[in-house]
Write a structure and sequence with these properties.
InterPro entries: A-crystallin/Hsp20_dom (IPR002068), HSP20-like_chaperone (IPR008978)
Family: Belongs to the small heat shock protein (HSP20) family.
Strand order of the largest sheet: 1-2-7-6
Organism: Natranaeroarchaeum sulfidigenes
CATH topology: Immunoglobulin-like
Distance between the termini: 104 Å
Number of domains: 1
Radius of gyration: 24 Å
Protein name: Molecular chaperone (HSP20 family)
Shape: elongated
Helix content: 10-25%
Number of helices: 1
Structural class: alpha+beta
Length: about 140
């Protein structure tokens, strides 16, 4: 083995190690999210590049949205992964405002062309409900 080959081997080993650390850090942190609110809905926008709909799980629990993304690295013919820096198992969550009542069963999730996951959760419309002042009982 030549000195150049040894140097290349050491360099590739270091890059793989740094890549794994980078990937682990990304997987241990929550995915960045923006939370937006309108009169009739709440919209959570998570960064989710390289994700397909089969990779995503969305759950609503105790006033928060929880997501999990399990992505995969595509193999590229003739190429070897030198720096595996992208996290593959990503999670995120966002707490919805406490004063907002939402209908999680009517929520929709969309992966956009620019690599974001948008979760639209409609608010419960209470304006049509009449106030119950009690029941009149004849005596």
């Amino acid at each position: 083995m030549t000195l150049r080959e040894i140097g290349r081997s050491v360099s590739n080993t270091l890059l793989r190690g740094v890549g794994r650390v980078s990937s682990n850090v990304q997987e241990s942190k929550s995915i960045p999210v923006d939370l937006l609110e309108s009169d009739d809905a709440v919209l959570a926008v998570f960064d989710a590049p390289g994700t397909s709909r089969d990779d995503v799980q969305v759950r609503f629990s105790e006033g928060s949205l929880h997501i999990r993304i399990d992505r995969f690295r595509e193999e590229h013919d003739g190429f070897e992964t030198v720096f595996p820096g992208r996290g593959l198992a990503l999670t995120g969550e966002v707490e919805l405002p406490a004063d907002v009542e939402v209908d999680p069963n009517a929520a929709t999730a969309t992966i956009t062309g620019n690599g974001t996951l948008e979760i639209h959760v409609p608010k419960v419309d209470r304006s049509d409900e009449t106030q119950d002042d009690g029941l009149d009982v004849e005596v």
